[in-house]
Amino acid sequence: MPPKRPRGGAAHVTAPRPQGKDPSLRRSLALFRAFLHEQDDPESCYSLLARDAADQVEAYDGPVAGRTVVDVGGGSGYFTEEFRRRGAHAFLFEPDMAELGEKPPDSAVVADGYLLPLRDGVADVTFSSNVLEHVADPETFLSELARVTRPGGLIYVSFTNWLSPWGGHEWAPWHYFGAERARARYLRRTGRPAKHTLGENLFAVHIGSTLRQVRARDDVTVVSARSRYWPFLAEAVVKAPVLREFATWNLLLILRRCPT
Known about the structure:
InterPro entries: Methyltransf_11, SAM-dependent_MTases_sf. The protein is α/β, with parallel strands linked by helices.
């Protein structure tokens, strides 16, 4: 059954958008160091990333306590668990059983992000971290995120763009020399096949085309388009064509669902 929004709670007052303040250099360095140990210490890496992402949501939309958060493609549930620790009614929808791991969060649902088993407008916050580059049809995926978000609700979407130094994921930055060559190098170096294959579970998503698609929509407005991890000029770099495809690293879109 789709999760129901709580009744009788205090009315939610939308927090004002942060004005001109970028995250600290210390925060960016901590995240970078955590990413370097993603393979050998995923618990620390993703727990830190989850706390940081929840902080970002609350910076744009106020406390999540008592509100319904839908986490789409959240893997083993680090984000869902962090939202729950903050008092949210958070629900995980993940299409890949293998990604859920051995101990997924309670009430986790195996579901495709193209067709979520939720009624329209159920979520106060719809959250998707580093999923867009793994779907073949980003526009349809974004439409589904918008559909399940209530009018006035927040949509958080981040993704690693293809021309980012991390665009090839585990075989980056060798993806600049071609995906197949990069995958072959990964196999030679590690002795095992790469997890991601371009055109199957990883797609070349670009910032410019994604921004044009989102800005052309009539069901959402763009609150912010910024680099997710940069400690300075996080919005400015996204405004520079060509440069943004390499320098943004990871695009964060904060969207607001338009009134119906």
